[in-house]
Amino acid sequence: MNNTMNNNSDNADMIREAYAAIGGLTPVKNFNCGKLCGGVCCKGDSAGMLLFPGEEDILKEVPGFYIEEIEYMDKSGIKLLMCDGVCDRDTRPFSCRIFPVAPDVDKKGNVSVQPDIRGRNMCPLWDLDPEHVDENFVAAVGKAFEILSKNKKMLALMRLISAEIAEYKRFYKSFKDPF
Fold it and tell me: Quick check: 26 and 101 in contact, CB under 8 A?
């Protein structure tokens, strides 16, 4: 077997481990947070969710999912999952599972959890006090980030996401971290 196959398989296994770390947790304890906003993030419009290395192999055969290759933060070859707005929650990509949080990567490569300001205008959790966000969810996402950060390609994508969010924050003068 060639190295590309091994790497893709290893990446897919790592993604599955990150999925397992989050399990069925959502940002609001014992509640599908999509019911707060009518699933605004699952409308199947022209937006998509970034795929982590190896996720394409897991999700490419899921009905209603379409994968495109895009340029993201001046880096080509990034995969974006488009959907028709309806899926089995167990088949969601990692980016959907962690929304509305995202990785925050420091200069040393340490990854922590931060609010995903890119979803500020659609997610009602931005208006809630931090006590309403399930700390078990945040901790589980942190564990998932820790798992993925051991892989150079995964960490590279998390750095790009973190850099994009830092740019957004520069333009939100009244940014208040809801978590």
Answer: no
Sequence-distant contacts of 126-133: CB under 8 A, at least 24 apart: 126/100, 126/178, 127/178, 128/178, 129/178, 130/178, 130/179, 132/28, 133/27, 133/28, 133/178, 133/179
Domain region containing 151: 3-171
**How many structural domains comprise the chain?**
1
Residue pLDDT, tens place only, 18-43: 999 999 998 888 777 777 777 777 77
Residue 179 maps to a domain: no
Q: Is the peptide bond before 100 cis (omega within 30 degrees of 0)?
A: yes
Q: Mean pLDDT, the chain, as a whole number?
A: 86
